[in-house]
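Run folding on both entries below.
>entry_1
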Amino acid sequence: MIVRLCYLEEIIEQGYAYVDKSRFVYDLAERGKYYFLARPRRFGKSLFVDTLKEAFEGNKSLFQSLWLCENWDWEKRFPVIHISFAEGVLRNRAELDGKILTILDENQKRLGITCEYQDSISSLFSGVIRKAKEKYGLRTVVLIDEYDKPILDNITEPIIAEEMREGLKNLYSVIKGQDANIQFAFLTGVSKFSKVSLFSGLNNLTDISLDPEYSASCGYSEDELTQVFSNHLKNKSREDIRKWYNGYSWLGEKVYNPFSILNYLRTGAFRNYWFETGTPTFLINLLKKNRYYIPGIESIEASESLIGAFDIDFIEPENLLFQAGYLTIEQGQRVAGKIFYKLRYPNMEVKASLSDYILTRYSHDRVRKEKVQLQIYRAFQENNPDALNTIFQALFSSIPHDWYRKNKLFEYEGYYASVFYCYFTALGLDVTAEDTTSHGRIDMTVRMDGRIYIFEFKVVDVDKSKQTALNQIKQKGYADKYRGITDEIYLIGVEFDRGRRNIIRFEWEQFSQG
């Protein structure tokens, strides 16, 4: 039986399949005291937090078949304070404070202790930690799940987001002050806010988000998928499964998104399960505001500081794309004392889904968008580049002047290439943007049915263009990279006029390898 993401107790008692992550519990407890882990939504963070909770509370019966069973001191039953902001949406500071008070009250009841509230959340939290230690004779374990959700839920409202940040800072600052009464603390969420802005004096918080040893602490590795779900993988294409759902990497072993792979194994249908659980409206607005060159998402190289901690008043597209899970790390490189990371889409689900969503937000006519996508796919199926010209000519001609006036997207050169890119990738086509060759970078390469299409885009002023896009492909020898791979290589040059806001030259020819 395949399980939805839920609590450890339910998984074990109901006999669901469970990927054993208990070794990570042992490693964390043995090596340190304060930890932070950032992972995208729907990645099993809450389940891992619950696994920590059950282990520290000494519930050995839940670990009978797991690695931790023979490697843990079950005689010690630590008091655990469990704080989660996963449920509901908080819209102001008063709601946040009310939620915190409710959570602390629930913890008191579960632990069998009573602390008086004296108009200070921080003093109440301190009292719960201290009294829990006094009652149980062991230092308290503090587990905080979705620590950043109240801020992220209000990220489009900076003033409210700042109020939420200050409210959470008031709560989290207690952890440092109660060091003598705390055995272990673990905080997890989607994003990584700077320690200065949110964690105050908690400067000894160990961030394991990019620690290769904990890369697979959430998510399923290839081996784990094979071992635990072998019965459900019969007669299924492992290559297609990897292409769609594997590929997340935080400098260690690649992992599958649990939510997507579990839903695929349940239904047997390749769909955008993870992407459909969230709406990246804020991200898309940020891309539009920055006039971001969408194909460039595939070739981002960013420093550790850029994709690391951010704050409400400093959010860049690269940072948000990575922390929200739309991009993952391909490799890291140290350059002059700094670490730079090359980022990429983790898999087809994310690449196609994000492109389609961007296209929807950039489109003036969503019904037409769907029809155009079908036409484009058929043009590639029939190997008909001329049809692509006709399709995109009609598409750009159909956009009303008023839409351009309001959006101003056409004013930046990346707009037209971004439209082509999003239409292609949203269809799930094999697209490589800024394809590197020994002679330079190809704007875009598309592979389909053994054929390779090389695209070059230029935005020009009429009568001022000295070199055509097609000639540039030929002069720079972009096709040389693919010699011998296939006999069908097509060179396509597309030029746009700023004034007309449409294609003015569309040329193509088949590359002769002779």
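>entry_2
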Amino acid sequence: MSDSLKHECGIAVVRLRKPLSYYKDKYDTPLWGVNKLFLLMEKQHNRGQDGIGIGCCKLDMPLGQPYIFRRRDAAKDSMASVFRGELKKYNKMVRKGIFDPEKPETVKNKFDFGGEILMGHLRYGTSGQFDSGSCHPYLRRSNWPTRTLMVMGNFNMTNAGALNMKLIDRGQHPVFGTDTQTVLEEIGFHLDEHHTDLYHKLRDEGIEGREIPEMISEQIDLPTIINESAEPWDGGYCISGVVGNGDMFVMRDPRGIRPCHFYINDEVIAFASERVPLMTVFEANKEDVHELEPGTCTIVRRDGSMSNQRFHPELPKSPCSFERIYFSRGNDPDIYRERKAMGAALVDQVYKSIGSNFDKAVFAFIPNTAETAYYGFLDGLRLLRRQQVRSEIMDACAKGELTEETLDNLIMRNWPRGEKAVHKDIKMRTFISQEKGRAQLVSHVYDITYDLVKEGDALVALDDSIVRGTTLKESILKILARTNPRKIVVCSTAPQIRYPDCYGIDMSELGKFIAFQAAVNLLKKAGKSSVLEKVYLACKSELDKPSEERVNQVKGIYESFTDEEISAEVSRMVYPEDLDWHGEVEVIFQTIDNLRACIKGPCGDWYFTGDYPTPGGFATVNLAYVRWFEGAAGRSYDLPL
């Protein structure tokens, strides 16, 4: 992706269904669960880069013995650091005789992560702090296991400000700046309430104090706690948590915005943000890995019993389309097919752009996430050319003009030529991400293969999405221009990103989107600047309405122009300055209709269409415009609405 779009988070949960001795006997290690957690997280490492956290809850620990643990790290290479550190501790304890790995019960008693419930979280922070304290899982401790709570998730609540105000109205003192803390405290509040009610009921019945914890653990009603906690939430989320007694849950937002999958056999219950890691780590077939139904919560009790219950009425699904375009790993069979289809869907636009001449064009992609779409793009180009050749051969036959020279021209020449024209220096990119404000360095993230492009050629580069256009102008186009093509065509498998996201991806400031900037420029050029203030007043008015009545007034910015007109203005805006090269630049975007045709099933496309799946989305987009118009920076969904 040519702009620095922030990754969302990923989760991994491993719940062992057998005693540790079973895994020691069968797999020769009591750390089978820890190993599986590490692999699930490593297979999703593309989703989180700046911090990780792992947690463990042990079942049926004797009173007075620790039972819940976590490690978090936001340093470079935190994944390797955390797991290497735990393995080092394990081996050191074995050498010192603190426990015997041949006796798994001693591992459980002494090693922090020798438990049955293991949780892992990958974080790519999009706001707030970037230290270990901001990494999941979050832990709410108590000397009652049934009031102790550990929570992690892949989510963003659009109404975090309002949720914090709700806590304040109760008399609580929330920690602002993170909706994770808000979610933790909301669930924790209802857990406390439920626990207190049970305690008073049992105490009044004359139950002895020592017996009360066990009875509370048996009677605790986790489904009700989840229902009460989630009632005010507006956002996209996949949240997992464990109570100190060993009851755990995984829940998914009612619209299915954020992904969640699970795998079950007689040894393990496992959850992950992506399907393929579960298939790979547990050597499972595609049919054995299931999607958690939106609006439901899977609960696994400490005794291993499992249930799935709905905490919200069923709603139309709106899964994040950026999962399909960019985030999820391309080795998922459905993702792979859809990304190839997205590439192929651009063929007609590109063919027209290059002047219908394959012989004078080089086709490439901008690494690395666009590679799968590029294969589909080439397939589509070749299919088009085969159809042309067949038609021309049939015409020549009908006219009696089919000659060897004609066949040579049709079959041996003018075929789509795919090349590795662009290279990305990952090490350079990593370095720059740690050193802000290095514009000159950014221009060298990409490099080219020299002498591939000949005089008079068009160079076509496929990317998965174009958000801000900054990298395109400051780096990619400058380096592509060094090949001296007659024309550079950059095509995006995603449509024009016109509206902010508020459900997990950090695309929140409207004024940074190149498509929005282009529409504003066109309004000013057309003498329609008054539209900007008109939309501003409409957005402010919208924010005064009840949340369920709000609509997206920012659509008014785009109404006067076609997609092609906005794309043409984007092409002009990203044209690199101060170059000797004077060729043409054209930026092509996927159409909404083609995107929906490529993605089978529901398609959450609010970034492109402005059609948000929740009331919080409409509040966010209107407030984002108000903040842009008033010159204020920052994420609109960080504020009370």
